[in-house]
Specification:
The chain has a single domain (2-130, 184-253), classed as Rossmann fold (3-Layer(aba) Sandwich). The protein contains 9 helices and 8 strands. It has helices at residues 42-50, 76-90, 103-114, 133-147, 150-159, 163-175, 208-217, 234-237, 239-253; strands at 2-7, 10-17, 25-29, 53-58, 97-101, 121-125, 195-200, 222-227. Helix 1 links the parallel strand 3 and strand 4 (53-58).
């Protein structure tokens, strides 16, 4: 079921799977170039495996959501975490679980840091907590692929006339000189809920320094899994393996 939710700075588009009224909700947070349909069937499959409800939403500036209310700065992911917390409050979700991919994983960590007892647990997949040269090199390659048209046509299928704004918001922010200073490790000491930290060993946008930074920074238990042979999109590259890991983690929590 799709719906629209009005918040302080605009509206978000939601996709609900509510088959288990007395069970928790898993909130899925997409990556920097993502949207609801780009998750494909992964959220529904994970929610069903865990006998949970699933909620996927388009962040501001993506899909059917309102345009981003402000220009991105060094704290743009922190502001995204505040939007997530507002969404959870408005929907009266009782201690949901979080599943975030890439930027979505970073947002999940930041939200859990702001409300230490507000979430049952979280799964991050290819999340970032600091800027690495491998990240910037990967983005430069993506810019080249976008400018020659191959990546742009693929993303335009999902983002339509917004495609340039979506891509440039991501690439220009991460490649900006001011963003080299971005690091959220010191903000994560109040993350107390259990975390499953997933990353492909061949991730073209981050090294093991990212997962090591998460495990070192959070106060709660963190289980780290480096996925051999996988890149930045583990839930698409080996869906069943990631489903097994995430479902096992969530079932243990519940």
């Amino acid at each position: 079921m799709k719906a629209t939710l009005s918040l302080k700075e605009g509206h978000l588009t939601l996709k609900w799977t509510r088959n288990f009224p007395d069970r928790p909700t898993i909130v899925f947070l997409h990556d920097a170039l993502g949207s609801i349909p780009q998750w494909k069937d992964f959220p529904g499959r994970l929610a069903a495996r865990c006998r949970c409800n699933g909620l996927v939403y388009d962040r501001y500036g993506y899909g059917g959501a309102s345009d981003a209310p402000r220009k991105r700065g060094l704290d743009f992911l922190e502001r995204e975490a505040e939007v997530l917390l507002e969404l959870v409050e408005r929907l009266d979700l009782e201690r949901p679980l979080l599943y975030g991919h890439s930027d979505g994983g970073t947002i999940a960590l930041l939200a859990a840091a702001r409300q230490p007892h507000g979430f049952r647990g979280l799964v991050t997949e290819a999340a970032h907590v600091l800027v690495e040269e491998i990240t910037l090199a990967g983005i430069r390659k993506a810019v080249a692929a976008y400018e020659n048209g191959a990546l742009r046509s693929k993303l335009a299928f999902y983002h339509g006339e917004r495609v340039d704004a979506v891509f440039r918001a991501w690439a220009d922010t991460w490649l900006a000189p001011f963003f080299r200073a971005w690091n959220i490790e010191t903000q994560l000491s109040s993350v107390v809920c259990p975390a499953l930290v997933l990353q492909g060993e061949a991730d073209e946008y981050g090294s093991e320094a990212q997962v090591a930074g998460i495990r070192r920074a959070v106060a709660g238990p963190a289980e780290v899994v480096l996925l051999e042979g996988l890149g930045h999109l583990p839930h698409k590259e080996d869906r069943d393996r990631v489903l097994d890991l995430a479902a096992g983690f969530i079932k243990r929590l519940l």
